[in-house]
Fold this sequence. Notes:
By secondary structure, this protein is mainly α. 77% of the residues lie in helices and 0% in strands.
Amino acid sequence: MTQLQRRVGFWGGILMVFSMIVGSGFLGVPGIMVEQAGPLGSLAGWLLIIPLAAPMVHIFARLGTRFPSADGAVAYAEFAFGPRAASGFSFVVLGAFMAGMPAFFFIGGAYMAELLQLNPDRYAWVFAVLLGVFSTALNTKGTDKLGWLSAFVVPLLLTLMVVGMAWYLPQNLDGFAALHTLAQTESLSWHSVWTAAVIAFWAFQGWESMSFGLEEFKDPEKTIPRIYWISFLLIAALYALFALTVSLLAAKGLQISGPSGLVAMLAGYGPLRIVVLMLVVGVLVTNANAWVFGCSRIFFAAARKGLLPPAMARLNGANVPANTLWILMAVYGLTIGFIEFSDVDIHQLFMLTTQGFILLYGAAIAAYWKVEQGTSRLLVCTAACGAMIILISGFKWMMLVPAAIFIAGYLKHGRQLKGLFAA
């Protein structure tokens, strides 16, 4: 069997989007942004990326309604440029996830180490592997087995964020004075703002990634646009308030940096630390399940098209691509080991992932141009292209990496690759 079933309704989709986006977006990305750009640059990066993401959400909501399949955004690329180019974009997405998934697992692993009062610098990679194995095993049981976890943990995260902001903001209004002092004493460079925005883009990539799971959504014409826009408006508001809170605290000297840097803000000290960290780890497990789900569907779709071995296109008794899930877990484990014992920094993996999704975003813009008509098409595509140019601007020669991956996929398209894997 190679056809997925439509099992995910509106509320299941909302929970899946939230669990895919808000976990690492809230708990890992802000600390990494402060580490790389400082409190002022981090806040500026958030304020830049939120409006830049709006046209992307609109485009993916519209195209998801038109093409609800496991091919996701690659189907949009095929519609825009043809099947050969779509193979190139498939490889770009596969490469982006090979960089992004281990980075996410490191965030979860760092918080798990904090929960057990271990040094995250030393033990994060061990728990990263364990988190990946657990999420993979749970995904093999079927998407309907994930809903209870999301329904329980995601509301807890949102409650935690709202309560935390309500607690910290009134007590730290003097942080505005600290930010003002930083603005006067430190120059805010475009490069630091751009770096922060690119890292923050990770927190919005869930809407692109969700496109690969839309084949399993019920009544896609009604549910997909509602899921995309309702989730975006809520999450964008939460991100903006949370970014302000984190920047105020960082400006006052609270040590908020690195993948698990928010421990200082979220948990504090005493018995409350353990309780809050348990909730945080639960959120990240939910987040991991959603990302493992989306990533496996991307590779499943590529195998179904003949770009990967046919074993990765087979479904188990729970209608899940279990072979794909475990093969990917093996790759994640090897990548995590490489990261731990090399000089690669996690923020570099975030940026590599962003590069791939930026190219895919460009293909989606072209597909949207072909689907839509009228003035709205021009306005949306102009805004989207402007956002894409801003995001690309600082990468320079690094954009050669996804370009080379695209060329490899483009050249491997068709009978040549199918024949290779058919043997």
